[in-house]
């Protein structure tokens, strides 16, 4: 009985090792051929998404997926979308936006010009939420929002500003809880089963591809939003991205992280003070 258990354990261990080798080879191939670097993403989440894509591509193994990805650009683009599945909504976590109004907006009023970077902006809902908030606070005309993501398909949807009408009930609820001062319906026009956001909300937004794993700083910012992105990174990549943000923030610039993320336990923790520990809003002090 003990020998059978040992044999089964050895087989399971060998299977897991093979799976990890296949994943590493796939990610190395993607990086070397296409320049997209997922090699330092957290393995558990990455593994689930890769296997999901194996099944959706109807191939028998990760190795077979690698062969298809390396020889078929369309398959690669589908893989990129699978590995960066957008999960977002307008005024997601309303308490965060309410706190931003109360604690960060007064600071931004003192600046002659405001630069905000939404890193990993996905399909743009968070970006437009910020545009609405700045508009209501009378700051949008002196602001520039840089919205970046590595997923071109998500960026295209963000540029269009078109969303499902079925989501508007939840978005309206979020908006009101976030301190919204108007009727949320003023910010969009309905057409069939979709809504399109008002064009003036896009006028000060720049959408661009940017990969946090491989690309460098491109400007100095007063505010950086990066929420629920680094939870998919391993410690090495997370530290690298915090270094990128630290380099990109002006002195007294504000960093906003996701609910499960923190500046603590990074080598940059002493560079920040907490404006709100619950909502993960930090200000760079040195």
UniProtKB/TrEMBL annotation:
TM spans (from-to): none
InterPro entries, per database record: Bact_Chemotaxis_MeTrfase (IPR050903), CheR_C (IPR022642), CheR_MeTrfase (IPR000780), CheR_N (IPR022641), SAM-dependent_MTases_sf (IPR029063)
Domain CheR-type methyltransferase: 11-263
GO terms assigned for molecular function: S-adenosylmethionine-dependent methyltransferase activity
Cited Gene3D superfamilies: Vaccinia Virus protein VP39
Alphabetical list of SMART domains matching this protein: MeTrc
Protein's recorded name: Chemotaxis protein CheR
